[in-house]
Amino acid sequence: MRTYAQYCPIVRAVELLGDRWTLLIVRDMLVGAHRFNDLARGLPGLSRALLSRRLRQLVNDGVVVRTEDGYALTKAGEDLRPLVFGLADWGARHAFGDPRPEELDPEVLMWWMHGRIDTTGLDKRAVIQVEISDRRRKYWLVLEPGDASVCYTDPGFDIDAVLTSDLPTLFRMWEGEIELIDAVRAGRIGLTGPRWIVRGLPNWLRLSPVAPHVRAARAQAT
User: Fold this and answer.
1) Which Gene3D superfamilies does the UniProt record give (predicted)?
2) CA within 20 to 30 Å of 65's CA: 3, 53, 173, 215, which one?
3) Domains (range + CATH), the chain
4) Could you tell me if residue 7 is left (phi over 0), alpha (psi between -120 and 50 degrees) or otherwise beta?
């Protein structure tokens, strides 16, 4: 373990959590990821070998515990919630400018989005084709009662609705900078399909967990 050789609780915390990727692993676990593959898919820049090492260290440090189907945060891990989302608040106010090209990964965005769709009110399947206009890529959100999945190749189902956007705009919507309904009305995002999907999607799609912090920061800045 890297040590700063200073007797201070801040130093001890940084020694435990300051390695690259560690806080992002905790972030994803705080919002529901607990299987190794789910963590890996949400952090594609992190190799599986390094993810294993970081998880092993978090287990050794008492932040994470192994479970039958993956990993879970201990009380010490859950106690990091205000710290992690405090960083989100600070970052939204002081460090969150325009997106950089290397930050815009469409497959990561689709993975994040599918995990935040609430399908409990659905009584039948809805298949939404997502077209990323500036990347010429298509993805499919398959919504079933009580479940949502994302497909990176055509799943073979009939398409019920089509959402079209460039990638930066879709990220801005996800992060809470713009409302989906407002973006559709302004023509920045296209959404075509039956009325029950067009009206339902803004309610089904829960945005990024940091969206409230981004919205608050934007409101303070205006």
Assistant:
1) SCP2 sterol-binding domain, Winged helix-like DNA-binding domain superfamily/Winged helix DNA-binding domain
2) 3
3) 9-79 (1.10.10.10), 101-212 (3.30.1050.10)
4) beta
Mean pLDDT over each residue of the chain, to the nearest integer: 95
CA dihedral over 57, 60, 64, 68, signed as positive or negative: positive
Going by C-beta distance under 8 Å and a sequence separation of 6 or more, which residues neighbour residue 102?
A: none
Global pTM exceeds 0.70: yes
**151-177: pLDDT as tens digits:** 999 999 999 999 999 999 999 999 999
What is the tens place of the pLDDT at every residue in 111-127?
999 999 999 989 999 99
Cα 160–chain centre separation: 24
- Phi/psi at 73 (nearest 5 deg)? -75, 140
For residue 186, the Cα-to-chain-centroid distance in whole angstroms is: 25
